[in-house]
Amino acid sequence: MAKNLQVDETIFVPVSKLKANILAPSSFVERHVLEVVARKVRIDVEDNTTELIASSFCHRNIGILIFSIGDLKTETTLLDPLAKSVLQFCRLLVPDHSLKSFKVRSISEVEEIWRCAHGSISHVILIGHGSKASLRFACDGPVTTGALFDKLACVETSPKNFISLCCETGYKAFGGAASAYDLCGLFIGPFHSVHGATASQFAQTFLTFHLLEGETARVAFKHARAAVAGSASFRLWKDKHLISGPK
Hints:
By secondary structure, the chain is of the alpha/beta class.
């Protein structure tokens, strides 16, 4: 959620939260702040009209980056379908220029993409095979939290929300450790193994509550866990602390 918004700032506003009947290809419209009134901001809509909207619904930046981490074994039957389902949903949620998706098989590819894309990203979705302390890359084998996030931390960037659909990455050794990095605003990941269909539905449900409905990440996380069958094992970490999910 955007805090301390200022006049003339550019923000992203969910169409569903506007009174005006705006026809938009995605779920967000880009607008300018005309006035700040307590916890609300006035924005321009259509036909020279304005509206007041709660700043909690607004975002300074909306950008989703999907990393599908290939293993050469289960890509065609699991990872590719999972990545495609999440990608197509995100295309309905945000404009195409706010969405990037890459299949990677090495940590060097992740590093190169990150250097080019990090500035426009607010959310990172990780798809692949995980364990309690690592992600499996086809070219590099198991890559630990430190090995991955040290590469990402080489670039100074704003905090991102990480959503991992990789099994067991909700453990403290991976998710908790990742959340300690300044670039990680929060980390969400499954505590146990998770079925691909459940993982896809959880990601879509969380993003719907968080971005479309304007809920905080913590509230959206709880709603997603409650709404999706089999997703109760997901955990939310922030600043090395387990915020929500099974202990």
